Amino acid sequence: MSVLQRDPQDQVRVLDENGTVVGEVPDIDDETLVDMYRNMRLARHFDTRAVSLQRQGRMGTYPPLSGQEGAQIGSAIALDEDDWMVPSYREHGAALLRGLPLKQTLLYWMGHEKGNQMPEGVNLFPPAVPIASQIPHATGAGWSFKLRGEENKAVICYFGDGATSEGDFHEGLNFAGVFDTPNVFFCNNNQWAISVPRERQTASETIAQKATAYGIDGVQVDGMDPLAVYSVTKAALEKAKNPAEGEGRPTLIEAVQYRFGAHTTADDPTVYRDDDEVEKWKAKDPIPRLETFLRETGRLDDESVEAIEADIKQRVADAIEAAESEPRPEPSEMFDYAYAERTPEVQAQYEEFEALREKVGDEGFLRE
Amino acid sequence: MSAQNLTIVQAVRDGLYTEMNLDDEVLVMGEDVGKNGGVFRATEGLWDEFGDDRVIDTPLAESGIVGTAIGMAAMGLKPVPEMQFSGFMYPAYDQIISHMSRFRTRTRGRYTLPMVLRAPYGGGIRAPESHSESKEMFYAHEAGLKVVIPSTPYDTKGLLISAIRDPDPVIFLEPKLIYRAFRGEVPEEDYTVPIGEAAVRKEGTDVSVFTYGAMTRPTLEAVENLEEEGIDAEVVDLRTISPLDRDTVVESFKKTGRAVVVHEAPKTGGLGAEITSIIQEEALLYQEAPVKRVAGYDVPYPLYALEDYYLPSVARVEDGIREAVNF
Fold it and tell me: Which residues form the Transketolase-like pyrimidine-binding domain (chain B) (predicted)?
């Protein structure tokens, strides 16, 4: 039976908090399993460094992901090459797996538009900052695949628990249900929408159960259990592309998890939540959990863990160096992308801008 | 070219039909656009012709319609979503402003949105509350969008085809007051009217009157009436309010030295303010009189018992022109 066919309250789990197998281990090869671990470690280390860069004034406001690695990597690693990803603004780890280099994630939060320039062939939408607004886009993208008969493609869309309060969540899922589009809606229920708890977002017992209202499947998964996340995401993507007779394509996955840090570097979570709560969730940390499982099943040992550690540190250090060495964007780029071809007014403003730059120099503009 | 005699709303339908026949990527979506053919009949018969996958009746959800169209357009389809009335566009406003206008910039051209958002707009048809407003400046103010407002059947079809072929998102506002007010010749074939070019509807030497959409008709009538008083006015139909055809505005003003702007949108922050600024910037020394704005008032659009007092009438336009000429 599919992992999706269960009561929304019946949370899918594979590993318990100690890394002990309590469910059905998905069929993944050893290399992918270790890769899952490596990328979770990479995402955690990247996140730690990114927060530090912000604190040192080397980067702008940044939304940390620590605690959510299991959900991000476990789901993203389940995507096939032709699938598409529509993220919110916190999916740095998932985006990395989809092919967005860490350097670009850093550049984006350092204020460079270039961070959003997806390399060709990377099936990834840009991060969406207005809450839930990306959900209808994901439905539309999935819908376009269906209209064109491209049946080998599905779309995964990420959003938080706060997003489920927005109208666009309803509209996106409603359209997906009505038009039976190949979509996986992945809610990173990290318990807090900035300072407002999940209980203040919805009186529903679970977020997964909201799927029922749209006539689509809903499933709740332990979001800090990467193997469980992998299982449900894989099943949901498969169903989106190849539904069985009478089965609908879209699925709402609620991945129950916790963000260890702040919503962004601009808020202080100690103001709105208790240390006890944070400690309780930290005990569920997805990384040691998977590590224990991998060690106990002989897939990892001290030596390989050390090698992974050295590798991820190098990769993050290289990305930071590359991002910080990136020259300031060419100012005239502001005028390059608003329209396919500059309108006469944009062209006139561009010429005025260049003439003024010529006259007063860049120092006439810069505040630092 | 063989021609037909069509109303504006028929020209909308003809433009959609023509382009959907030529390009399989074009699809129409919105509330009641399918079997019902649209509440104004702008999509009549298209569903019979092109079927469920290209003429899509959606749930009643403006943000969902625009948001899903954005996703489709990012993947290369050319959706033409319809908003049933422009007064109901506001639930989709976040999608329009946060995404539709910015997708190209945000992704440095990797994703473009070749979509056209159509909506009937404006007053004068004795409609209920929220059915008559003229909020085109909301969209004209937003970089990344183009805003087109036709005033003749010929332009409607040609501009709509241009909009569908445009690689950038276009807001296509249809003045519903003149949806069926008159007919005009419309070629059966495909043709385009360029976006961003104004049309001089009548040449004149004494004063330039700038207008667009439904207000073009009372303006032309006022100008005709004033000929008896010896006033020779030039009438410029802007046709696109973003990007605006500054050259034609400036050229016309330099010829006449006087300007009147007529629009039904509220006066403050309306296109009249923009045109006045363009004249200040580029033709100050040609100016013979203050620019006169004949516009809607800065009050909520009234229920229809009073809408005739709100909308620029022929007499108001005549009065504005006289004021500019007799300064």
Answer: 6-181
